[in-house]
Write a structure and sequence with these properties.
The protein is α/β, with parallel strands linked by helices. It has helices at 43-51, 53-59, 96-108, 151-154, 163-200; strands at 10-11, 28-35, 64-69, 76-81, 86-90, 117-118. The relative contact order is 0.12. Residues 179-193 have a biased composition (Polar residues). It is found in: Mitochondrion.
Length: 201
């Protein structure tokens, strides 16, 4: 079994700088492409520089790209991020397609986030004394001594009427009130008519 994970950079999961507060903020700030003009190992990055670098710079105006030729050295990509960290990777004998994929990966990730060894799956700047909340945090401790089956705990939960049900009840009450007022007006009109007939007779 390998012990390489012991030497990995460790930390807690946290949002990158400026990300999630407003609009999306690309964490990649600067990229330096170091290559040789004649060495065979730099053929892939030379192809990227000749055919794809201009489009990459147009599509990502927030990323500064430096091209640094150097003689008889292996090609290297150095990426610098907003948090001040740098990622260095050697791309000797990489094809042009591989360089495109690695440049896209460096642009979309935040430093070495995927290679960070997490100490815990959650982290808070203000830890609680009583620990994290669970469904049993505020339960009555006497429920530990309850004998089952229990009628109270096994009874169905009765919830109050919903807002829709309350509106339906109010509507029905209004309809009943309208019907009673209309019936009372009809009875009053019929009583007046009968009294008129009696007076004429």
């Amino acid at each position: 079994m390998s012990n390489s994970h012991l030497f990995m950079k460790s930390g807690f999961p946290r949002a990158p700088f400026g990300l999630g507060i407003g609009r999306y903020v690309c964490q990649l700030q600067r990229v330096t492409l170091k290559f040789c003009k004649s060495h065979g190992a730099s053929q892939g990055i030379r192809g990227f520089i000749e055919h794809d670098l201009v489009n990459y710079a147009k599509e990502n105006p927030g990323v500064v790209v430096y091209v640094k030729p150097r003689r008889h050295r292996n090609p290297v990509i150095v990426a610098e991020y907003l948090d001040g960290n740098r990622k260095w990777m050697e791309i000797a004998n990489y094809s042009r397609e591989d360089v495109i994929k690695w440049m896209e990966l460096l642009r979309t990730q935040f430093h070495d986030g995927p290679s960070l060894r997490l100490r815990k799956l959650w982290h808070t700047e203000f830890p609680s004394i009583q620990g994290p909340w669970t469904p049993f945090t505020f339960r009555n401790p006497m429920s530990n001594l309850t004998q089952f089956p229990n009628k109270e705990l096994g009874a169905a939960i009765k919830l109050g009427p919903t807002a829709t049900e309350k509106l339906i009840e109010i509507f029905k009450a209004q309809q009943l009130a309208d019907n009673t007022t209309s019936d009372s007006t009809n009875t009053c009109q019929s009583a007046n008519e009968t009294s008129k007939h009696v007076q004429r007779a």
